[in-house]
Amino acid sequence: MTLSLLSPLAHAAEQAQSAFYLTLYSVPGVPRTDDPYTWSTAGGRQLIKGLTNEEGRAFVKPAEGEENYVLETVSMRWNMAVPAKCWQGEPAALQKCAQLMQSASRYDIEQDAAKLLLKKTQAQLQVKAEAYAVAARANQDELAWLGRLPAAWSMDDYGMRLLGLVDRIQGQISKDIKAGGADVRQFVCRAPASYGSLPQQAAVDAWSATARQSQLERGGPAWDALVAAAAKGNWMARTELYYALAGRNVSELSYLEQYRIVQLMEWLHKQQIGALYSLLNIGYAAVDYGAGKGGQDQVYAYAAMRGSYADQYSVGTRLQTDADPALAQAGDKMVACAKAARPDLR
């Protein structure tokens, strides 16, 4: 595409916006018509936005105190120096006065931006790696009771370890879920203590009653008490720790947090804690609860049948209105069981 500065011969409506214009060509002699464009200051303040007319004209205008401008289309960007004197007198003077300082295709701009982002990302990852190395040597973070940290860790390590764990869980679910899957009509309520040890359970109850925003901040007395309960082996506390860490975007996590998440997941899987399955929810959607009834997500039922009280509450609530009396009754049992174990559920 070429750029030409021509004297004004615009229609009256166009002249009402500006008498000055630049003519854009697809190839020499062939105007670029109906091409979206913006005319802005170099600082990013947009002055005009429109489409080139049938003669390829993009109308431009000055901004007080500005001499550097940008004309941008879908495919190109031009940086121009236009001193104040260029806007004085006849518009045709713009052709002789304005200077094209730099031009670039949209592709080049995007490639440069991608390179800059990559460089920035690599620098951030290096900072994370260095911080992790220091933490690994000390092994004194608040979750150090989960075990020693490897000397080095990366995002790739996290991805591979996580995928390996998910594959194992997926294999377990594939093996356990047979035609029709978990029949919730066979649901039997079990108290939290039947799934594992619950030392310092008051800390878990206090954490569950904490406001959601406070939980996201992961700090304060309630958080410290939850961590202490988890360190003692409280399975519900460790589940809550996993919720808190895994609920964040992986890019926001330090390498230390990534490794601790994997450790928590592996422990929950080893203990067969039901909440882990619904959190991963690895793709068994729209499978019936049992005997062709329900049409709900089988993974949530799978988790509910294995002691996930949050899933018992959500699955049970839906089942309570099922036309099948047996499923509705199972729903009542699930909701009652969940509320007894987790009064905070609602």
Key descriptive features of the protein:
five-stranded antiparallel β-sheet; elongated; 9 strands; 13 helices; 346 residues; alpha+beta
Largest sheet: number of strands, sense, barrel closure: 5 strands, antiparallel
Q: Report the count of strand segments.
A: 9
Radius of gyration: 32 Å
Helix content, binned percent: 40-55%
Determine the number of helices (DSSP H or I, runs of at least 4 residues). 13
Report how far apart the termini are: 62 Å
Order of SSEs: EHEEEEEEEHEHHHHHHHHHHH
Structural class by secondary-structure content: alpha+beta
Q: Which overall shape is indicated by the principal axes computed on the Cα atoms? A: elongated
Overall pLDDT confidence: 83
- Unreliable stretches: 4-16, 282-296
Taken as a percent bin, the fraction of beta residues is 5-15%
Q: Numbering strands along the chain, what is their spatial order in the largest sheet?
A: 5-4-7-8-9
